[in-house]
């Protein structure tokens, strides 16, 4: 079965159209002010008002309830992605309160890091394995860095999961082959510069991911 694809950090209509036309199953909006891809709740609501048939994901980093309330009162998100140091207890509460799917990001460098996902299996719908941010990075993700995919080879995750970190149209097929990832997530790899998506790169990425054996 072809891998599912999430295009993250969307902030303009052209890029959203490119993701939908290419066949991405998930589109992501970043609600983290420090990110060059950040959108406000109002912008995301406007951008997504006519979008149907895909899973709309909101990316947050240690958000407080006020931010979650603000965003979810403006638009219907299907999934909330948490890229900070949120605890299983916090995510269990959020999932129950907001009634949406929840995805927890686990930063990975070595095989030992995979154990950090275990406490979340009972309380989230998805796990996303992403590269650890480089030392001194401003962002916990979206840094265009990969990790050693072989740490996921043969790994059995009891919940649906995605792979992220430095993926591009040139390496995504190999990443899927090595890890067996059922879904992949990309931001930097489909941009012409940080915060500016390239529709042609989006199309190429989705095609490469979908054609991976
Ligand atoms: O994209 C961002 O700006 C961002 C900010 C804060 C946390 C995560 C962020 N992006 C996510 O990071 C991974 C990997 O991104 P990349 O493809 O290496 O650029 C992905 O899940 C992005 O959605």
UniProtKB/TrEMBL annotation:
Enzyme class: isomerase
Single GO MF annotation: phosphoribosylanthranilate isomerase activity
Domain of life: Bacteria
Positions of the N-(5'phosphoribosyl) anthranilate isomerase (PRAI) domain: 5-207
Coiled coil: none
Cited Gene3D superfamilies: Aldolase class I
Pathway: Amino-acid biosynthesis; L-tryptophan biosynthesis; L-tryptophan from chorismate: step 3/5
Record keyword Cell inner membrane present: no
UniProt catalytic activity: N-(5-phospho-beta-D-ribosyl)anthranilate = 1-(2-carboxyphenylamino)-1-deoxy-D-ribulose 5-phosphate
NCBIfam families assigned to the protein according to its UniProt record, in alphabetical order: PRK01222.1-1
Family that this chain belongs to: Belongs to the TrpF family.
The name this protein goes by in its record: N-(5'-phosphoribosyl)anthranilate isomerase
Species: Magnetospirillum aberrantis SpK
């Amino acid at each position: 079965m072809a891998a599912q694809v999430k295009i993250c950090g969307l902030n303009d209509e052209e890029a959203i159209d490119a993701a939908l036309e290419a066949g991405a199953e998930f589109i992501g909006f970043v609600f983290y002010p420090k990110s060059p891809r950040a959108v406000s709740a109002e912008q995301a609501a406007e951008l997504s008002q006519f979008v149907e048939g895909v899973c709309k994901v909101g990316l947050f980093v240690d958000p407080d309830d006020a931010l979650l309330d603000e965003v979810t009162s403006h638009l219907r998100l299907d999934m909330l992605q948490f890229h900070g140091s949120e605890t299983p207890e916090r995510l269990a509460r959020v999932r129950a309160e907001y009634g949406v799917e929840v995805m927890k990001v686990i930063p990975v460098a070595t095989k030992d890091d995979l154990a950090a996902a275990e406490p979340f299996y009972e309380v989230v719908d998805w796990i996303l394995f992403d590269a650890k941010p480089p030392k001194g990075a401003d962002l916990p993700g979206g840094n265009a860095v990969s990790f050693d995919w072989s740490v996921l080879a043969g790994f059995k995750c009891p919940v649906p999961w995605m792979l992220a970190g430095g993926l591009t149209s040139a390496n995504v097929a190999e990443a899927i082959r090595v890890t067996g990832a059922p879904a992949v997530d990309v931001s930097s790899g489909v941009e012409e510069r940080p915060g500016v998506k390239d529709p042609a790169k989006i199309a190429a990425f989705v095609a490469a991911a979908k054609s991976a054996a």
